[in-house]
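call fold(seq) -> C-alpha cells
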Amino acid sequence: MADGLLDGRRGRVVTVFGAKGGVGKTTLAVNLSVALAKLQPEPVALLDLDLELGVAALFLGLEHKTSIIDVVRSPDPPAITMEWAMGEAYGVRVLPAPPNPDVAPEVEGDGKIDPNRNYVEEIIEEARRQARWVVLDTGSNFREAAMTALDFGRPVFLLTTGEVPTLRNTGRVLDVLTTQLRYDENNLRVILSHCLQADRQKAQVVAGALDFPVWREIPYDGPAAVEAANTGVPVVVGRPRSPITKAVWDIAQALIAEVEEENKESMASGSKAVQAPKERGG
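ret:
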C-alpha cells in the first residue's frame, strides 16, 4: 500500500474501549480492521494503545520486532511508516503495543523524552494521513493514551457484557464521558459482547440498566474466539460462519455506509453553496 491518501482526506478513526478487560475489545478491534480491509481497497491501520498489556499483534499472528515504543524513541516521531512496515497482516497495518509494560511511561507518562508532547496524538494523526480507516484498541483506563483515543473516535465503541460488575463499570464510564467530559452521545455506541443468541431480551435489559441504547450485539462463540487467539488467525478469516464473524461484518458495513452517506451530504451541501450565488444574481 502506498503511503498517504491520494485525495488528501484524513482517515476515519474508530475507537474500541471497554470498562474492564475480558469484554472482547481486542477481538472486535482486530476483526473489524480485517473486515474493513476486505470490504474496501484502501489502507486500514490498527494501533494497539493498550500500552501495558496489548496483544493485538498476537491476534493477527505477527511476531514483531518493532512497536509504538520504537516510534516514540525514533529521532523524528511519528515517522511510523518503516516501523509498521513489518507489521502487516490480512491487509491491515499494525502498530503493536510495547513488548514490556515497564516502558509504557515513555509513551504517556513520566518517562516521556519530551513531557510537553502527546505522542499518541501525533501517531494517530500520522496514521490518519496514511490510512482510510484507523482502528484504536485501547486500555481500560483514563490515562493520556486512552483519553486521546476517545477524543479521536468517530465513533467510539464501548463494549460491555451483561454481568452486573461489568455493567456497573460501563455505567460509570458513560457517566464520565457524557456528564463530565460532555462527549456527544450520538458518537458513543454501546456494543453488548458475549451475547447468547437464545437470550433475545438481554440487549433490552442492558439498555435499561445503562439508560443508554445498545447499538449492536456480538454473540458468544467461545471456541471460535479461543481458536483465533491461539492461532493468530482472526475469526472473520478462520471461522467465516461464526456468529462473531456475522456481527463484525455487520458493524463494518454499517460504518462504511455511514461514511458514504456523510460524503453524499457533504457533496450536496457543496453543490448548493456553489449554486447559491448564481440564484441570487438571476
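The beta strands are 12-18, 44-49, 88-89, 92-95, 133-138, 156-160, 188-195, 214-219.
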